[in-house]
Amino acid sequence: MNNPNSGHIKKNLVCLGVDPGMGRMGWGVVERSGMNLYPRSFGCIETPSSEEIPKRLEMIYTHLGEQISLCSPDLICVEKLFFGRNRTTAEMVWQARGVVLLLGAQRGLQVIEPMPSQVKMAVCGNGKADKTQVQKMVQRFLSLEKLPKPDDAADALAIAITGLSLYSVKEKILSRQFLMQQFDEMLH
């Protein structure tokens, strides 16, 4: 990860996007090189509903940890979640999401947490885009021959693209702040 005090924006940046879930957790790795985005890999971690929740969380921890080791991301982007009525599903997804946050902290990675509408806005320019629109835009952004499947992996790629976009904005702000600080120091 680049040092915000250096005043330099890192050219290549790798983001692991995660669509959190207990039964299926989508993951996607996208690399930004200059202004171009490249898909590195994507897939799903599936846990059997017949297993106890602690064992399923351990499976997620192990498999996602392996993906982090393989792709060496600079940051992780995991979607924030909002649920209405199904509290049991929400609790399981929040627990799975907690594993992602824990892995990010343990590996010293910056974690970006966009809301679903931010992901749709970053990828489609519309915070209310449907799943098909998101998949088609991911396909277009990453120059994929066909729509990424399964849906959870396609969502994870969209989340990774969003993470890179949000991080780029942060890089520019930090760089501008650094330059302003240097300018102020020259004046005083």
Give a structural overview.
The protein is α/β, with parallel strands linked by helices. The protein has a single domain, classed as Ribonuclease H-like superfamily/Ribonuclease H (Nucleotidyltransferase, domain 5). 51% of the residues lie in helices and 19% in strands. The chain has helices at 53-71, 87-106, 116-124, 131-141, 151-187; strands at 12-19, 24-33, 36-46, 75-78, 110-112. A five-stranded mixed beta sheet has the order 3-2-1-4-5. α1 (53-71) packs parallel to α2 and α3 (116-124) packs across α5. It is globular, with a radius of gyration of 18 Å. Mean pLDDT is 86; it is low at 1-9.
Keywords:
51% helix; alpha/beta; Nucleotidyltransferase, domain 5; 5 strands; 188 residues; globular; single chain; 5 helices; five-stranded mixed β-sheet; disordered N terminus
Number of β-strand runs: 5
CATH superfamily: Ribonuclease H-like superfamily/Ribonuclease H
Task: Specify the number of helices.
Answer: 5
CATH architecture: 2-Layer Sandwich
| Widest beta sheet: strand line-up | 3-2-1-4-5
Helix content: 40-55%
Write down the overall mean pLDDT: 86
Q: Nearest-angstrom radius of gyration?
A: 18 Å
- The CATH topology comes to Nucleotidyltransferase, domain 5
